[in-house]
């Protein structure tokens, strides 16, 4: 690896400009289609310089940066390991499009270990207790690919009052997967300026729904290759139906063992079949008998629904 540029004194716009020269750690989960907040289209637009810096920043990112020193200090307090701030963008020697802007490094028994700080909301606590969230696993393996490090400590402040950290070791198989997908994205989409194909992430669904929120009402003759997509859509739909029937069958078999019991235990698994009260409003009757109240508390929203016939 080599030092591309020091980040000391760089404005945010300058820093983003240098990041556009390659693929950083936080970009990898987007390319892999596992980032819940950012779509492949948004990443591509960013690398092509088509998005404004303010569109990339948000409060979650802002407070993540603000709380980074707190996470570092707490990690050192708990482990005794001192973190060195790198403040430099690193570049892979073998794959120049792979960049790394590390939160810090640790000298552990003469070897460089990466440190990564995170913040998370309370509802992510269970995920962090079980291990490293998938999107961050891609990020730290990317960093180990760039730096050739063998280990990473990743620590998270969860919900503002819970501190969790994990040791993660270098995974050569995952690194090779990362290199292939990054190289394909960089060479085929960024360097050639070709918009990437859609993936199945929620972030991409949200992006497309927002970008094409309004319907023109027009009809379009779709290209021939769309027939392959429709065939795949039909095949997956049938597969989902078959699997849902199998899942429903298994669920009913479990219910037959539970009988009137609410909780069941086997090994480390816990099964619950709990009573759930459902409260509903008769909308038609309310509208007919109390139209003013119905209109007062009615909110309307519109979206587009995809139907393949």
UniProtKB/TrEMBL annotation:
InterPro entries from the UniProt entry: Lambda-type_endonuclease, NF-kappa-B_Signaling_Reg, PDDEXK-like_dom_sf, Restrct_endonuc-II-like, YqaJ_viral_recombinase
The record's PANTHER family line, in alphabetical order, gives: EXONUCLEASE, PHAGE-TYPE/RECB, C-TERMINAL DOMAIN-CONTAINING PROTEIN, EXONUCLEASE, PHAGE-TYPE_RECB, C-TERMINAL DOMAIN-CONTAINING PROTEIN-RELATED
The reply on keyword Coiled coil is: yes
Write out the entry's keywords from A to Z. Answer: Coiled coil, DNA-binding, Hydrolase
Q: Which Gene3D superfamilies match?
A: 3.90.320.10
User: So which residues are the signal peptide here?
Assistant: none
Q: Which residues form a coiled coil?
A: 233-260
Q: Report the NCBIfam families cross-referenced here.
A: phage_rel_nuc
Q: What is this protein called?
A: DNA-binding protein
Keyword DNA-binding present in the record's keywords: the answer is: yes
Name of one Pfam family that matches: YqaJ
Lineage, broadest ranks: Bacteria, Bacillati, Bacillota, Clostridia, Lachnospirales
Give the species this sequence originates from: Dorea formicigenerans
Task: Mention one GO molecular function.
Answer: hydrolase activity
In this chain the YqaJ viral recombinase domain maps to 14-149
